[in-house]
Amino acid sequence: SEMCIRDSINAEYGSSESSMSVNVSKYTACLVSGETWKHKDVIKAVGGARWDKELKGWLLPEGKQQEVLDALKKAKVEVTEEEPPEKPKAEASVDANAHLTIEPYKKSVLLKGDTKDVKEQLKAFGGSWIKTLGGWCFRAQDKEGVVKLLREDPTNTVEEVEGTTVPVAKKRKKAHDDFIEEDDY
User: Fold this and answer.
1) 52, 28 Cβ separation under 8 angstroms
2) Pick from 1, 159, 163, 22: nearest CA to 66
3) pTM higher than 0.90, yes or no?
4) Which of 38, 47, 41, 46 is nearest to 14 (CA)?
5) Integer-rounded Cα radius of gyration of the chain
6) Which residues pair with 7 in a beta bridge?
7) For residue 54, what pLDDT is reported?
8) Of 73, 48, 50, whose CA–CA distance to 63 is shortest?
9) Which residues sit opposite 34 in a β-bridge?
10) How far is the C-alpha of 23 from the C-alpha of 5, rounded, in Å?
11) Can you point out the beta strands (E) in the chain?
12) Which pLDDT band, with edges at 50, 70 and 90, does 22 fall under?
């Protein structure tokens, strides 16, 4: 759940006429964002906080959400809870003409083929591009949903195949800076 914290500044932190907001979002980590600069010491004191430049907020371990909320309340920050925005639903592609295969891979499924034109749909469905496998990885339980989404565009073909993918071997350096092209293990 996402929590929006409205800061009621008092004498301890400055003028009560000022109004700033701090947002705390819980995903796999707790994100504290907004105008947090006056409260950075309070947030850092919770422990495990680190600034994320890209997200423009403080990331804390998921289990620290209540602790950071309590610390901000104790620092005279008024806390109000709001529901997080709904995750956008993945929409079917239009005339992508993608020829794809989906196969089991370890405890997940791997989608390979002409994925460039359906990339946004795959990302929206929660897929991760795995360069060494040359495809998109999804949780095994998401297989039916991914296939259904891709087949909503009648120009796409999705073929289910047996798992044959082996990760590409990573290059390793030898002591004298020559590269080994393949791993033998």
Assistant:
1) no
2) 1
3) no
4) 38
5) 23
6) 20
7) 73
8) 48
9) 22
10) 5
11) 2-8, 19-26, 29-34, 50-52, 57-61, 79-81, 99-105, 108-113, 128-130, 135-139, 157-160, 172-173, 179-180
12) low
pLDDT per residue over 123-155, tens digit each? Answer: 888 899 999 999 999 989 999 999 999 999 999
Phi and psi at 139, nearest 5°, equal -65, 145
Secondary structure string (H, E, C) spanning 42-65 = HHHHCCCCEEECCCCEEEEEHHHH
> Looking up tokens 């997080």, which residue turns up?
84
Instruction: Name all contacts of 25-28 with Cβ < 8 Å and 24+ positions apart.
Output: 25/84, 26/1, 26/2, 26/62, 26/65, 27/62, 28/62
In the chain, the largest separation of any two C-alpha atoms, in whole Å, equals 68
**70: its two tokens:** 């309590």
